[in-house]
Write a structure and sequence with these properties.
mainly beta, Agglutinin, subunit A
């Protein structure tokens, strides 16, 4: 038993040491279609269904392009050195490294420091996309068409959105209520983030509460660090802030090559 514990501890140390010096790399010409990911050690780079390109380490987001809500098809590390997210042939986001001598280079994330950059083929850094050891905002999202029946919930880290048994739709963080629909005591069956952009609490087919955003066609997003609960349009534009928190929403655009 003692030898087994010693062996397990040594194995853990070796794994930790290997992670300390490891990198996750997207090489020249490499592409990730929506829904695809690449992994290295405890990290993964994921071209998410919601349009965001995100690096996770042990299921915790450490870097992202913040393009959630955008319509995208794929990302690619172009041979000209530019990392680009596309919707078909239309660029949604880019690293703007097409003209800095990075042709044939690669995108790399260090798995211990979470330093993110674009590099030349010889390993020279040409653009730093993120300093090491970042703090990335954690978000909880209810997508278009998603339904929560009474008693169901969505979770993301310490945050959760619950369609409670008492009829109230509530956002919690660390078990503290952040926002609620104020429908406690009402008879409800479910809530839905409708395709038209309206978040609605229903009793079967009878509307009990709504966000009055039926022109938006988007999604609900709660950002943990700012305590902001908002409805966004499908293109990522802020439509309505459901609570009083304030934040900014930024999207990058860059040079592209529609041939990739």
């Amino acid at each position: 038993m003692k030898n087994t514990l010693v062996f397990s501890f040594v194995a853990f140390l070796l794994l930790f040491a290997s992670q300390t010096n490891a990198q996750l790399r997207l090489t020249s010409g490499q592409r990730l279609d929506k829904g695809q990911k690449i992994t290295a050690g405890l990290g993964e780079l994921y071209m998410q269904e919601d349009g965001n390109l995100v690096f996770y380490h042990i299921n915790t987001p450490k870097w992202a392009t913040m393009t959630n809500g955008k319509t995208v098809t794929h990302c690619i590390m172009q041979p000209d050195g530019n990392l680009v997210i596309y919707n078909g042939t239309y660029p949604v986001w880019a690293s703007d490294t097409w003209n800095v001598g990075a042709g044939g280079g690669y995108f790399e994330i260090h798995l211990s420091t979470f330093k993110v950059g674009i590099y030349k083929p010889d390993g020279t850094l040409v653009k730093l996309l993120q300093e090491g050891n970042p703090t990335i905002a954690t978000t909880l999202r209810m997508n278009s068409g998603q339904t929560l029946n009474k008693g169901q919930k969505i979770t993301a880290g310490t945050a959760e959105l619950i369609m409670q048994e008492d009829g109230n739709l509530v956002v919690y963080n660390n078990q503290a209520p952040i926002w609620a629909s104020g429908t406690n005591g009402k008879t409800v069956t479910h809530c839905i983030m409708q395709a038209d952009g309206n978040l609605v609490v229903y009793n079967n087919s009878t509307r009990v509460w709504s966000s009055d955003t039926d022109w938006a066609g988007g999604y609900l997003l709660y950002t943990v660090e700012t305590n902001e609960v908002c409805i966004y349009s499908a293109d990522g534009s802020l439509v309505r802030r459901l609570n009083s928190a304030k934040s900014t929403h930024r999207i990058h655009y860059g040079k592209f090559n529609a041939n990739y």
